[in-house]
Amino acid sequence: MRPRIIQAAAEGADTLPAAAAPVTAGTAAGLAGAPLRAVPRSPPPAALAASELWAGVYLPGLDAADKLAQLGGRAQRFTPRVSLAPPDGLLLEVKGSLQLFGGIAGLREELTNECRRLHARPVLAFAPTPLAALTAARAGRALVISDAAQLTGQLAPLPLSALRWPEETLARLARTGVRTIGAVLRLPRAGFARRFGPAQLATLDALTGRASDVRAAFHVRERFRRRCELDCELADHDRLLATLAPLFAALGDFLTARQCGVTELECLLVHRHPPATRCVLTLAAPCADGQRIAALFGERLNTLQLRAAVRACELRADALTPHLPGSRCLWQPGEHGGNTAEVTDGLIERLRARLGAEAVQGLTLREGHRPEGAWAMTTPPPAGRRRTTPAAAVDAVCDTSACEPGLRRPLWILPAPQPLTARGGLPCWRGPLRLMSEPERIETGWWDGEDIARDYYTAIDTHGVRVWVFRERAAPHGWFLHGVFG
Prior knowledge:
CATH class of the largest domain: Alpha Beta
CATH architecture of the largest domain: 2-Layer Sandwich
Helix content: 25-40%
CATH superfamily of the largest domain: Reverse transcriptase/Diguanylate cyclase domain
CATH topology of the largest domain: Alpha-Beta Plaits
Number of domains: 5
Structural class: alpha+beta
Strand content: 25-35%
């Protein structure tokens, strides 16, 4: 029976028999008629490393991060598994791409040509683990290690500086005579971890394939660009919009497939002689509906004065935003708590398309005790930000019953206080004002040269309008109107 069990284990290289105890005479009878049960065995990390081949690209003297990202995008024509190793490294898993590019020699030549197009002189190395390939390239050795059994031996002569460890760690190892990777691999693991930390030991395990080295995949930033050459020159806005309809439909399909939206869209209208006309559409919230974008763009296009007839159109969307369409509410906006965000966004977008992006502004709160500096003009926030605005921020500006009467703020604050006349020591605005509150003193700004010292009052005029006025504490103690309550 024992030879039979050994033979079964030898035939299934990835399985082991379930019975690990020695076979005795009592169990032999049961094993004779019973089929062997096998459990899967996980391959060791070295076997996993042998199934991959990584190309490490070292770019000495690379001075721009955008060049590394640009090279990463070009490298994706060789393999989809591309990873950046800033500031001067690039990694590619090329095991399945060797036959497509004529083996390692052909792939090395293609990668070198791609790097030289960006005016970089690369050093390439190939190894079963990504860190080994990158370390060999940074050491200036164009190694080709296709067998995992030769990995440690090939890496042993390389200097430790290629691992990019801290200078203090390299200096301490150099004082003990350890200057190469082979020398550090011969040190006792437990003692090395105690003296130099587990991070360096984990680096050695990833280098030799004892532990997995998972690299973040690099993805090129997606953008939409589509150009349409016209059969004849057009100057009519409606015909131009009809010509652009297929481009907007393609944009909607492109965004829906990626669950993304756009908040800014650009269209270039190319003429024969004058420079191209640039038409920019800004949205209040991310949108992926091609028909809605086309309708808003039509509003924006009607406000443009074309320099000449248009002979080509190019639609661009460079910044994509993750976007999931929200569910529609059962109730209409404004009733039973129905959501009004979509209606508000549609109104903002139409106004900005017709009047321009600078014609529609929003309000934001600012920290400070000076009332005229407590708010500022800004672009309208997206719907999500409007829904998450804390109620306390609104109460700080609006008149609410939760505030004490003397600390209420009017909804309408003048950009600059308006001086008032005084009669009998009391302010006048469309007649004499009647003070309704105790004074609220505000003194601030002495540190920036715009200090104020005021006593604020809530007052009512002869028509029953409630206003916010103050009296300067410094001579000549003038009265000013600063706000009107709703």
